[in-house]
């Protein structure tokens, strides 16, 4: 190998010579040296061949890290966008009455069950008045059956609008529609 630079040793360059070769300032060369991008042999002196190899490896590693960071950033942005979309879809379903919040379901079901309980508790009194004086078993059974079906009717009357009516979210949908119409 021929001598490179003004150093007495073969293949050894100074900080300023390495900076000139790579088109950097000497300060940048010292920064890159701290990041192990060059092979230092002595104070202010670098092995040119080994430093070029180390610098190429440093650049490749940096590019891979940049690509990984870009991919991670893109992945995170994709996940965030997907989460916001799903949240918006769920909120729209809640506001349009297609989906119900658990607290709304709990409130409606508690009201329905309380009404059903009250009707069950009132059943003996109501049925007794109707079967009093009746002597035929079949007639008594039919009267009781009709009363039982009437009580059970409470549980079969599922109306999704009841959930929507008690929901606080339905107001937001109406306000959004007004806002959207005003903007257009």
Walk me through what this model shows.
Helix content is 75%, strand content 5%. By secondary structure, it is mainly α. Strands 1-3-2 form a three-stranded antiparallel beta sheet. Helix 3 packs across helix 7 (169-183) and helix 4 (102-131) packs antiparallel against helix 5 (137-156). The longest helix has 49 residues, at 48-96. It is rod-shaped.
Strand and helix map with partners:
Layout: E1 12-14, H1 15-22, H2 26-34, E2 40-42, E3 45-47, H3 48-96, H4 102-131, H5 137-156, H6 160-166, H7 169-183
Antiparallel strand pairs: 1-3, 2-3
Features:
single chain; 184 residues; mainly alpha; 3 strands; 5% strand; disordered N terminus
Number of helices, counting only DSSP H or I runs of 4 residues or more: 7
State mean pLDDT (0 to 100 scale). Answer: 81
Report the radius of gyration as a whole number of Å: 41 Å
Low-confidence blocks of residues: 1-7
User: How many strand units?
Assistant: 3
Helix content: over 70%
Shape: rod-shaped
Question: Could you say which structural class the secondary elements and strand pairing correspond to?
Answer: mainly alpha
Short description, anyone?
This protein has 184 residues and is mainly α. Helices cover 75% and strands 5% of the residues. Strands 1-3-2 form a 3-stranded antiparallel sheet.
């Amino acid at each position: 190998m021929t001598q490179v630079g003004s150093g007495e040793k073969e293949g050894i360059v100074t900080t300023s010579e390495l900076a000139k070769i790579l088109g950097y300032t000497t300060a940048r060369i010292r920064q890159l040296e701290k990041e192990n991008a060059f092979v230092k042999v002595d104070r202010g002196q670098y092995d040119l061949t080994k430093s070029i190899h180390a610098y190429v490896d440093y650049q490749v590693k940096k590019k891979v890290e940049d690509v990984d960071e870009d991919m991670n950033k893109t992945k995170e942005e994709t996940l965030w966008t997907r989460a916001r979309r799903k949240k918006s879809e769920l909120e729209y379903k809640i506001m349009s009455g297609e989906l119900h919040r658990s607290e709304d379901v709990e409130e409606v079901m508690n009201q329905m069950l309380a009404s059903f309980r009250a009707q069950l508790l009132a059943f003996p009194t109501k049925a007794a008045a109707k079967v009093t004086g009746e002597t035929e078993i079949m007639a008594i059974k039919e009267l009781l059956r009709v009363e039982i079906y009437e009580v059970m009717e409470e549980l079969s009357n599922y109306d999704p609008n009841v959930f929507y009516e008690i929901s606080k979210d339905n107001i937001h949908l109406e306000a959004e529609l007004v806002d959207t119409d005003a903007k257009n």
